[in-house]
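Ops channel
N.P.: pipeline sanity check, posting one input/output pair.
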């Protein structure tokens, strides 16, 4: 079930969407607002779940590495 690449792609899209919600919330309400923290916690859960799933499948780390690299490039821009 978890070895399905469509499932992994769906999870990555959920991670990207949640990340966008969190960034938009941080920009609008601040980094410590309840909504931003809620989105951050939900994003953490999605990422943790994805990492557990990836641990069960070989050779699928490249796409998530790209997503995390992109995420780390976004955050410094948001903090400025």
């Amino acid at each position: 079930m978890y070895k399905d690449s469509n499932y992994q792609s769906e999870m990555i899209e959920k991670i990207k969407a949640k990340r966008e919600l969190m960034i938009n919330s941080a920009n609008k309400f601040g980094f410590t607002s309840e909504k931003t923290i809620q989105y951050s916690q939900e994003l953490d859960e999605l990422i943790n779940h994805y990492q557990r799933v990836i641990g069960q499948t070989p050779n699928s780390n490249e796409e998530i590495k790209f997503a995390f690299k992109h995420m780390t490039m976004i955050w410094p821009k948001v903090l400025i």
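N.P.: looks fine end to end. The two ends are 42 Å apart (CA to CA).
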